[in-house]
DNA sequence: ACTTATTGGTTGAAGATTCAACAAGCTTGG
DNA sequence: CCAAGCTTGTTGAATCTTCAACCAATAAGT
């Protein structure tokens, strides 16, 4: 029952490297996006998901799912984006409870510029410093994590 | 100059898997720690670093570095931990500006319990779902990221 | 049809993090 | 010595996130 099962030395090293790297990278990406475009990562992620959706529009619940955010958080964040004129909200046709978030023209243009810089930074600090085979392994690893975390609900 | 250099399909998949997995995992770990022990991940991380330091004590600046937190954030967080009686602050001998944070007995006992549960969760959602070779690759990948991000300063 | 439960989304307050400004102690150069 | 410039750490306000409570609309059970 209460067997500790500690991590062995190698697992511990890998886990810690991941924690340190992910925190520092997230921090850097956040600052970068904030400095160059005045966006938080959460805001950026929302714009990206919307830009890829048909008609650049999604219901709040779906958007929350795709962007890995709570609904409450999404409400607040979209409110901010709406103030900036990058997203607009409208009611949903078939379900009167539903709300559609839609990327505005301005939002799309804005995202195009931001994405350029963002991708360059992701390359510089992530993609380009990782061995291609290791990168694939990272992909496999985190896909497994996503699946496992999904089961928890 | 402004060549976009987008990610190819495979890189994009891997990057997105990482983003989604890391966000969802961090979220789960946070909730878990909060529900079972009333700690945030940031607080937990601080307790861990202190517990490993000689005399279970570190100067604020070092602690900030080890825990990957800004000094400001650390000040606030340690203040909270001090309120809970898990950490105590005292002035540093040789440098009168310095402040030492020290893990209390209570803090150590508390951490022992929290760490047990935390490690079990880390296993369940991370270590045990990743192929051992992939885990090593993750370790290499994020070590490289840490190094690269470090250069940015 | 009517009552109850569930889902979709928002809100405001509480909690955590960032940011800029600051005080106090060390250090360096003249 | 001392003045200007770093470094350490804290503070309060602004920003962002979480949490619990809530309303409105749909779905389900009887």
Structure report:
The structure is a homodimer of 153-residue chains. Helices cover 67% and strands 8% of the residues of chain A. With 153 residues, chain A is mainly α. The first copy, chain A, has one domain: Arc Repressor Mutant, subunit A. In chain A, a hairpin with a 7-residue loop joins strand 2 (87-91) and strand 3. In chain A, helix 2 crosses helix 5. The model of chain A has no long low-confidence stretch (mean pLDDT 95). Chains A and B meet through helix 1, helix 5 and helix 6 of A and helix 1, helix 5 and helix 6 of B. Chain A binds a DNA duplex (30 and 30 nucleotides) through helix 4.
* Second rung of CATH, namely the architecture of chain A: Orthogonal Bundle
* Greatest interface (CB-CB under 8 A), with counts per chain: A-B, 55 and 55 residues
CATH homologous superfamily designation of chain A: Winged helix-like DNA-binding domain superfamily/Winged helix DNA-binding domain
The radius of gyration computed from the alpha-carbon positions of chain A, rounded to a whole number of angstroms, is: 19 Å
- How many domains make up the coordinates of chain A? 1
Shape of chain A: globular
Q: Kindly state the percentage of residues in helix of chain A.
A: 55-70%
Question: Which structural class do the helices and strands of chain A define?
Answer: mainly alpha
The oligomeric status of these chains comes to homodimer
Mean of the pLDDT scores of chain A?
A: 95
In total, how many beta strands of chain A? 3
Number of helices of chain A: 6
Describe the main β-sheet of chain A briefly. 3 strands, antiparallel
Through-space gap between termini of chain A? 23 Å
In the CATH scheme, the class of chain A would be: Mainly Alpha
CATH topology of chain A: Arc Repressor Mutant, subunit A
| Range of strand content of chain A | 5-15%
